[in-house]
Amino acid sequence: MNSTDDAVLMAMDGGVLTVTLNSPRVRNALIDGIEAGLARAAKEANGSRVRSVILTGNGPAFCAGANMKELDENEERDAGTLRARAREIPESVLLPLARIEKPVIVALNGAAVGAGIGLALTGDYRVCAQSSSFIFAFLRLGLAPDLGIAWTLPRLIGYRAARDLLFRGRTVTAEEALQLGLADKVVPDDDLAEAAKELACELAEGPTLALGATKTLLRRGAELDLERFLDYEVLAQSMLVGTEDHREAVNAHKGRRAPKFRGR
């Protein structure tokens, strides 16, 4: 089994950070090494060198969800310990990933199971291999959805569709995920890495700070009333006016040329 240090791999290429879950023997389940590696990756993604992120998996699964060995040990834990553990992954992994102020593309190489779906939903785009799937397995374990799924899923595909997937514990193919709006693109398995990299490179060439602000505004729009949202929008826009990328865009327009953004 992978060591803690190589359970999640990171590689930089031209402003694109590729984060790979790398524990295929446990189908990239949320073992300690995966959790720690994702927390490190979220910090790395917010660095100034990074302009877009790809999150993918190594092996037949994207992420098998909960560590079943840990679930077996839950009977020995008291209620306080269980509550603390239930809060740990959302706070240390899920929220940092969701708050990355760069475009995040999830390249779904295989099955996303249970909590693995929550991980996939942190991305801004989901590019899916033809053989990949989303397996809503919570009820099979007598559990409710976690890692924010009951919050993110209805906002993505609507209440009725989300309710059906969660209540019936359904498996969703890549093609159905595309129809539902759960996936943005489906490609042949062998083309997944290239398709994700193409999108990541396109986004990496954009104005990084403006993309980050747009991502935050989209998230805030689901949480705030219009008056409070407009206050936040004004704050974001006033900050962006002072960026190098905005000045470059204005100068490029004057010079009738394409802008060359530098992400600052």
CATH class of the largest domain: Alpha Beta
Low-confidence stretches: none
CATH architecture of the largest domain: Alpha-Beta Complex
How would you spell out the order of helices and strands? EEHEEHHEEHEEHHEHEHHHH
The main sheet comes to: 6 strands, mixed
CATH topology of the largest domain: 2-enoyl-CoA Hydratase, Chain A, domain 1
* Shape label: globular
State Rg: 19 Å
Keywords:
2 domains; 6-stranded mixed sheet; 10 strands; 2-enoyl-CoA Hydratase, Chain A, domain 1; alpha/beta; 264 residues; 11 helices; Lyase 2-enoyl-coa Hydratase, Chain  A, domain 2
Describe the 3D structure:
The chain has a six-stranded mixed beta sheet, sandwiched between helices. The longest helix is centred in the middle third of the chain and has 20 residues, at 79-98. The protein has 264 residues and is an alpha/beta fold. Helices cover 47% and strands 16% of the residues. α1 (32-45) runs parallel beside α3. It is built from eleven helices and ten strands. It folds into two domains: 4-204, 2-enoyl-CoA Hydratase, Chain A, domain 1; 208-254, Orthogonal Bundle (Lyase 2-enoyl-coa Hydratase, Chain  A, domain 2), CATH 1.10.12. The mean pLDDT is 91.
Give the helix/strand layout:
Elements: E1 8-13, E2 16-21, H1 32-45, E3 52-57, E4 61-63, H2 68-72, H3 79-98, E5 104-108, E6 111-113, H4 115-120, E7 125-129, E8 133-135, H5 149-157, H6 159-168, E9 171-173, H7 174-180, E10 185-187, H8 192-204, H9 208-221, H10 226-240, H11 244-254
Parallel strand pairs: 2-3, 3-5, 4-6, 5-7, 6-8, 7-10
Antiparallel strand pairs: 1-2, 8-9
